[in-house]
């Protein structure tokens, strides 16, 4: 059975963080474009959360995943050092 700390898992978690960051930014920009064009009622009637709050919330979650990925990366480095022969 392998170690939970591997570079592959760290890369996958970092990819998830990047997807969340990009997705939240795209949704925020789209919401602002819709509001600027005068169709803000579409967002107000369809959204249960304000776009700015959604952006900040998803950005915070992405930051947590990014920190977790860095922790897994560091854990993989420590695991590799402990597995090396002296």
Q: How far apart are the first and last residues' alpha carbons, in Å?
A: 23 Å
**How are helices and strands ordered from N to C?**
HHH
Number of strands: 0
Mean pLDDT: 85
Low-confidence stretches: none
Q: Quickly give the structural class.
A: mainly alpha
Given the structure, what is the number of helices?
A: 3
Shape: rod-shaped
Helical content stands at over 70%
Oligomer: single chain
Radius of gyration: 19 Å
The main pleated sheet reads as:
none
Q: What is the percentage of strand-forming residues? A: under 5%
3D architecture notes:
This protein is mainly α. Helices cover 81% and strands 0% of the residues. The protein has helices spanning 7-36, 40-46, 51-83. α1 (7-36) packs across α2 (40-46). The longest helix is centred in the C-terminal third of the chain and has 33 residues, at 51-83. The protein is rod-shaped, with a radius of gyration of 19 Å. 7% of the residues are buried.
Short description:
By secondary structure, the chain is mainly alpha-helical.
Which short descriptors sum up this protein?
single chain, 86 residues, mainly alpha, rod-shaped
Strand-helix topology:
Blueprint: H1 7-36, H2 40-46, H3 51-83
Helix pairs in contact: 1-2, 1-3
């Amino acid at each position: 059975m392998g170690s939970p700390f591997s570079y592959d898992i760290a890369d996958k978690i970092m990819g998830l963080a990047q997807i969340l960051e990009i997705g939240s930014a795209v949704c925020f920009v789209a919401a602002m474009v819709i509001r600027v064009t005068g169709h803000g009622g579409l967002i107000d009637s369809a959204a249960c959360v304000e776009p700015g709050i959604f952006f900040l919330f998803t950005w915070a979650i992405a930051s947590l995943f990014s920190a977790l990925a860095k922790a897994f990366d560091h854990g993989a480095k420590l695991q590799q050092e402990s597995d090396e022969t002296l």
